[in-house]
UniProtKB/TrEMBL annotation:
This is Acyl-CoA desaturase. Pfam families: Cyt-b5 (PF00173), FA_desaturase (PF00487). The keyword ATP-binding does not apply. It comes from Penicillium arizonense. Its EC number is 1.14.19.1. The lineage of its organism: Eukaryota, Fungi, Dikarya, Ascomycota, Pezizomycotina. Expected to bind 2 Fe(2+) ions per subunit.
């Protein structure tokens, strides 16, 4: 890694990728995924052909709704907030239950789900984002699966999940769990309870799975659509807050808040941001089943809101004050920076400013390894690369400042 040069680098917005109908058609043709087409479209055909001959009983419909809500929580609380963002820690019993019920929603194993979701957050709205919203509603909703190309996704760190025995266990037994818990169990309950095994399997099984899938997909598509919702916290990404959709998605459609504060176990902090998943996690903590609930501070949230309300003029117009604060930091030469890094000090350099990241490495949304490989180097390109960091991330970084490189003051 070469020595950084000149003054503090300025963040230059990148031009958005352009995707025409022709390029999109070629994408789907080249990356046609037969299995995913079958698993996503096939059940809809089955429902359409068999529904006229299977009239569900009232208890079956009620079971399908309840089972669908429980399944939705397994994705929002388990797959998303627990495993993808490490927003809290759960006991082994809760993790097993979330892994089993999550597998029954046919949204694929935790490892694979977290892989694409972490890539989405790290490379939001770029070509390395698995469900890049700038490629249109169809692509961000389901097209990214029908034309699957994992090679195009940006790399992410999954080392923490590979050390979780529950995640590995679920990955190995995913298909038996899906078939048994997701389809056969509803049929067995309906058969033993009110003699409706066909309705149980079709409506509380297959139909419920399809509906739960597409409710999840709405977060990737509608909650990133330019015509939908509001952006009260940040305009750095396409993510929107949509209160009505948040009710349907158990809190997930408070998406602008989530992208601004991705490690917060909450996806909303006021009554206009309904978040049922948040309160279940809160209750689990009171019962001793969950711990280490991560939250953004009230000050950080309010600062983000004010910055956005003023169209970020305060942040952009305050560059002089920011630079004045930077020049008050103690000076450090590049050689001293390298020497302290060689002595195992957890230092990184961004834009000529040195930061001590020792207490932040385990909380970094992109994973500890991403910071580990940047220690003792110039990480400017990494910080301002494919992922556009939010004002919340900038504020966290500001609190880690320890010094400024001498060459950056010249």
């Amino acid at each position: 890694m070469s020595k950084p040069r000149g003054k503090l680098a300025q963040l230059v917005p990148r031009a958005a990728s352009r995707h025409t109908w022709k390029t999109e058609f070629e994408w789907y043709r080249r990356n046609f995924h037969g299995f995913l087409h079958t698993s996503l479209v096939g059940p809809i055909v089955v429902i359409f052909l068999t529904a006229p001959y299977v009239v569900p009983k009232q208890n079956t419909i009620l079971m399908a709704i309840v089972w669908g809500i429980i399944g939705g929580f397994s994705i929002t609380i388990g797959y998303h907030r627990l495993w993808a963002h490490r927003s809290f820690t759960a006991c082994i019993g809760i993790r097993i239950v979330l892994a089993v019920i999550g597998a029954a929603q046919n949204q694929w194993p935790i490892l694979w789900w977290v892989k694409h979701h972490r890539a989405h957050h790290k490379y939001t709205d770029t070509d390395q984002d698995p469900y890049n919203a700038k490629r249109g509603l169809l692509f961000s909703h389901i097209g990214w699966l029908l034309g699957l190309n994992e090679i195009a996704w940006g790399p992410v760190d999954l080392s923490d999940l590979k050390q979780d025995p529950v995640v590995i266990w679920q990955d190995r037994l995913y298909w038996p769990i899906l078939i048994t818990i997701g389809i056969l169990l509803p049929g067995a309950v309906a058969h033993c309870g009110w003699n409706d095994w066909k309705g149980g399997m079709l409506y509380a099984g297959v139909t419920r799975i399809i509906i739960t899938q597409h409710i999840t997909f709405l977060i990737n598509s509608v909650a990133h659509a330019s015509w939908a919702g509001t952006q009260p916290y940040s305009a750095c990404t396409t993510a929107r807050n949509i209160p009505l959709l948040a009710i349907l998605t158990l809190g997930e459609a408070n998406h602008n808040f989530h992208h601004a504060f991705p490690t917060d176990y909450r996806n909303g902090v006021n009554w206009m941001e309904p978040d049922f998943s948040r309160w279940i996690i809160w209750l689990w903590e009171r019962l001793g089943w969950a711990s280490d609930l991560k939250t953004a501070s009230r000050l950080e949230i309010e600062q983000a809101r004010l910055n956005q309300q003023k169209e970020r003029t305060q942040r952009q117009g305050g560059n002089h004050e920011v630079n004045q604060a930077l020049f008050k930091l103690p000076r450090m030469s590049w050689e001293e920076y390298k020497q302290r890094s060689d002595n195992l000090d957890n230092l990184i350099c961004i834009n000529g400013v040195v930061y001590n990241v020792a207490d932040f490495m385990d909380d970094h949304p992109g994973g500890r390894d991403l910071i580990q490989q940047s220690l003792g180097k110039d990480a400017t390109g990494l910080y301002h690369g494919n992922h556009l960091h939010s004002p919340h991330a900038d504020n966290i970084l500001k609190g880690l400042q320890v010094s400024m490189l001498e060459d950056s003051c010249q």
